[in-house]
Amino acid sequence: MKNPFISVIVTAYNRKEFLKEALASAVNQDLNRDFYEIICIKNFKDANIDSYIKENNIINIVEDNRKIGEYIYQLIGRPEK
Predict the structure, then answer these.
(1) Is residue 47 included in any domain, yes or no?
(2) Does any domain span residue 1?
(3) Is residue 15 predicted with pLDDT exceeding 70?
(4) Strands 59-62 and 36-42
(5) What domain count does the chain have?
């Protein structure tokens, strides 16, 4: 993927129940994935969810000691691929 112009950010703080379905919703859009990226920010590791994230080329950020604003700041300041 080269310079996507849409970033879909999915956050989960201690909430695993619907995360995979939320990510699947973002993955299964009609828009070609060349035009958007999916970023998942969560404060836990889960083998099933993490496997889905990897299989679908979702950016996975696991961080447990920040507030949501700090996550967004981290995303905005991340280097281009």
Answers:
(1) yes
(2) no
(3) yes
(4) parallel
(5) 1
